[in-house]
Design brief:
The chain is α+β, with helices and mostly antiparallel strands. The strands form 3 sheets. Strands 3, 4, 5, 6, 7 and 8 form a 6-stranded mixed sheet that branches. A 4-stranded antiparallel sheet has the order 10-11-9-12. 42% of the residues lie in helices and 24% in strands.
Length: 295
């Protein structure tokens, strides 16, 4: 586990303890990270880095003392997938998390149904490296999945959709997509100049599949057949959205994030109430089927 990822783990641990106004001892942090006492110096450095990044930590001496986060993390922020990446970047560059969040949309478009915030350490580290490469306009080389051959990509954008981060970039002058979770051994290469035509093409391709790079929201509203059907919507949309009787309503910045769960719910379990969404969903399915047919 990288230093930055461990700092992130410490932050979340302190935040959980803050909810009960409990000071956390150094030994407890070591146990949480599964480290021995010889790592005490590293943990103190993590606490120092967090404090520098704006996550102010109180220190209290004595048997009832320890460390405590001065202010709990905003629960709304914790629901955002990008908050983990922003925290990681802020700690790496010794800047406040607010600054990272402001600049992050230039490189990462996070389109999500709120509630999914589980990111593995490797994915976070990959995201940090890729964002840094994009900021400096560096190509990157990496190995993908179990393929031994090295892949070289000019990174253009990271898109968060269907609960995964995807890198969109040029490989051999072709637009390719890579799941960030399956990228291994990232190495910076030479600098590259972004192609305006390719950026426009990327925007067009994403729009075709319901992935927006704007903050406009799309709303799905359905009438469920019965309570069992309603529970399916609550499950597949992770408990988000509003319920009124047997009606379910949920919004997202990405149409794709609304389309995807509908694949899993039988069509006889619900009726789509807003015609505008129905038309978009039907058009999306037609494009999807044409891709499968090779058209």
């Amino acid at each position: 586990m990288s230093k930055i990822s461990q700092e992130l783990q410490v932050l979340y641990f302190l935040n959980e303890r803050k909810k009960n106004n409990r000071y956390t001892k150094l030994d407890e942090i070591l146990d949480y990270l599964d480290l021995d006492y010889n790592s005490s110096r590293h943990v103190r450095r993590y606490l120092y880095d967090l404090d520098l990044s704006g996550f102010y930590i109180e220190t209290k001496r004595g048997s009832n003392g320890g460390y405590m986060l001065q202010d709990p993390l905003d629960e709304n922020l914790l629901l955002m997938p990008n908050i983990s990446l922003a925290i990681l970047l802020s700690m790496k560059h010794n800047q406040k998390v607010e600054e990272s969040l402001k600049e992050l949309p230039n490189y990462v478009s996070s389109k999500y149904i709120e509630g999914d915030n589980e990111l593995k350490t490797k994915t976070l580290d990959n995201l940090c490296d890729i964002v840094n490469a994009m900021k400096q306009s560096f190509s990157i080389a990496f190995r993908y999945k179990n393929i031994n051959a090295k892949i070289i990509v000019d990174p253009y954008k990271i898109i968060y959709t269907n609960h995964s981060y995807y890198l969109y970039g040029l490989n051999d002058n072709k637009l390719k997509t890579y799941n960030v979770a399956f990228i291994n051994n990232i190495v910076f290469q030479k600098k590259f100049k972004k192609d305006a035509v390719m950026e426009k093409y990327l925007q067009s391709s994403l729009n075709d599949y319901g992935i927006k790079l704007t903050n406009d929201k799309t709303t799905l509203k359905v009438s469920c057949k019965d309570k069992n059907a309603l529970e399916k919507f609550m499950k597949y949309f992770e408990g988000k959205g509003k319920v009124d009787g047997l009606e379910f309503k949920v919004s997202s910045n990405s149409e794709n994030e609304l389309f995807y769960p509908l694949f899993r719910i039988p069509t006889d379990d619900y009726v789509i109430l807003n015609d505008e969404f129905k038309d978009k969903y039907v058009a999306y399915l037609e494009r999807y089927l044409n891709v499968i047919r090779g058209k």
